[in-house]
Design goal:
Blueprint: E1 15-21, E2 28-29, H1 46-53, H2 59-70, H3 81-90, E3 94-99, H4 108-119, E4 123-125
Parallel strand pairs: 1-3, 1-4, 2-3
Helix pairs in contact: 1-2, 2-4
């Protein structure tokens, strides 16, 4: 188990985070449709996905509810936070989150990357600037 305190600088290099569509290149599927195991805890609930896709909730409301969904399970030392660290370390300090959403559109993977980078010092945003959707 990694000894990681989010308030102290990491002993190893940062884990870079990117995102792509499922099956476009190797990565960690965190989609509501097909995520498995601990990665499924990072997928948005179907009610949230359908609410956004059918226009019943906006991006701001989706983001708020999604962060409420992942925050309790992102506590250091619990799943899936430690799993993310192990997964990234085994893959040359890189995690490519995958979902079925288009690369340039609003997606929970963008919210997830922003959340991890801003909340924990062990991650860095490796998305090219042109890929990050403008709100």
């Amino acid at each position: 188990m990694l000894d990681f305190n989010p308030l102290k600088p990491p002993r190893k290099s940062l884990i870079s985070l990117t995102r792509t569509q499922v099956d476009s290149r190797p990565g960690l599927d965190v989609s509501a449709k097909s995520a498995k195991g601990w990665a499924a805890k990072l997928a948005p609930p179907w009610t949230l996905v359908w609410g956004y896709k059918h226009g019943r909730i906006c991006e701001h409301e989706f983001t708020k509810r999604y962060l409420e969904h992942i925050d309790p399970i992102s506590v250091p030392g619990s799943l899936p936070y430690t799993d993310l660290l192990h997964y990234g370390r085994k893959r040359n300090n890189h995690i490519n989150f995958q979902c079925y959403c288009s690369d340039f559109k609003f997606c929970h993977t963008h919210v997830l990357i922003d959340y991890l980078v801003n909340r924990y010092c062990g991650f860095s945003d490796a998305r090219p600037p042109w890929m990050i959707p403008r709100h």
